[in-house]
Amino acid sequence: MSFYGIELSSRLLLGTARYPSPKILAEAIEASKAEVVTVSLRREAAAERGGQSFWSFIRGLGVRVLPNTAGCHTVAEAVTTAHMARELFDTPWIKLEVIRDDETLQPDVFGLVEAARILSDEGFEVFPYTTEDLAVADRLVEAGCRVLMPWGAPIGSARGLNNLYGLRALRAHFPDIPLVVDAGLGVPSHAAAAMELGYDAVLLNTAVAEAGDPVAMARAFALAIDAGRTAFAARPLEPRDMAVPSTPVLGRAALG
Amino acid sequence: MRIFVNGDQHDVEPRTLALALEELGYRGKKIATALNGRFVAAVARPNTALADGDQIEVVAPMQGG
Fold first, then answer.
1. Do residues A220 and A30 make contact, with C-beta atoms less than 8 angstroms apart?
2. Which residues from B are below 8 Å from A when comparing CB atoms?
3. Which of A18, A25, A83 minimises the CB distance to B39?
4. pTM of the model
5. ipTM, 2 decimals?
6. What is the pLDDT of residues B6-49, one digit of tens each?
7. Closest chain A residue by Cα to residue B23
8. How far apart, in whole angstroms, are the C-alpha atoms of residue A41 and residue A77?
9. pLDDT below 50 — which residues of chain A?
């Protein structure tokens, strides 16, 4: 699997927020085998040292970073944040979020497409956090996105895949674009289900960070993602309405 | 001159963004900046003039999802 020409062997992208401690975060990243972690930006006062120490910590883990534009509600905010992230993290990758609704953190897909076009034109490699809407996805690809990240469910909701039909249709419509389910997953079976649909990867944060044992949960998600991907490659059966006997009936003893 | 850094008011002498950040104690820190909502690259800070009432954002790396 590759994102913008970068080959990756892990299909799990992990968020770095909300862990009980930096030590547990580091152990969770290791247990997840993630090669890409998401990061963000925040205001920092002159006397604070949090930003530098977090950056040193992440660099020490040897993983690739995907900065986000979390919290941005307008195209202008997202574009400026992306520029600041590119300079701070020294990467053209940007997880583009333009949020419309604060209750559901539903993306403003109109602003998202506009920001994606501006940033792609400026040389960014955009990972748009979007819905499963096909037409929006089409516009994002038109705008220059070479990865799409539809939500499974609202961020942090742990509801899993809310619209299986929509996600399946998206996969069928974009066979050659890497698709990542981003947000809303709660348990490893949700991630396995996404991979069984043929999704290329899964992006997680809260489901791991806020589990009772984040390190064990990171490992469980990694196993589920491997299982789901292996199952997809093995071409699963299609569901059917009627029973089909698994034991052959030919040669059955005639007993009555 | 009165400027606002991350929403807080400061009275500074310097006329450029680079000098103002230095006076405020940001020298050598891993930060990115925006002036009145627009990104200002580190290399452009010495040539970026400030005006009374300017809004400066100074951000640093943090955890994110």
1. no
2. 6-7, 24-26, 29-34, 37-39, 41-42, 57-65
3. A83
4. 0.94
5. 0.96
6. 999 999 988 899 999 999 999 989 999 999 999 999 999 999 99
7. A46
8. 12
9. none
